[in-house]
Amino acid sequence: MPGYGLPRSRKxxxxxxxxxRRLARSHNYWVITVRxxxxxxxxxxxxxxxxxxxYFSSGRASRKTRNLARNRRCIVCSEEADQAVIVEGxxxxxxxxxxxxxxxxxxxxxxxPWTLDAERGLIYAVRPRVVLAMYEKGFPNAATxxxxx
Length: 149
Known about the structure:
The chain is α+β, with helices and mostly antiparallel strands. It has one domain (16-147): Electron Transport, Fmn-binding Protein, Chain A (Pnp Oxidase, Chain A), CATH 2.30.110.10. Helices cover 21% and strands 38% of the residues. Strands 1, 2, 3, 4, 5, 6, 7 and 8 form an 8-stranded antiparallel β-sheet that branches. The longest helix has 14 residues, at 97-110.
């Protein structure tokens, strides 16, 4: 994070479990996609963090869905900015019944009485490429970045 004066040592870095807990516990998330003209589009969504990916649904005609059809790159943010987790990744549509059922179980429990319904919209998985985390109380030592392949 050039320009922030972060220390060079690893002392104080956040463990991956810290980031995953926040991703799993958030109720509301922000999803940022890219419009065809390059402008960003941000929208709050419900979703679940499961097995190293973020899952959410979106209406078939929504701006998010249209954006993701053209450019799968997106960002997902947890809800608490003082304990921020920012996931940069690519969204892929989940179409198979087995994976949808696996995601629906925790989603339906989390957002009861709402249910995850593939008939009403598309279901996406966002797999991380880079994850950034910042814990305000530990800043700047606790600013942490993970890279994935």
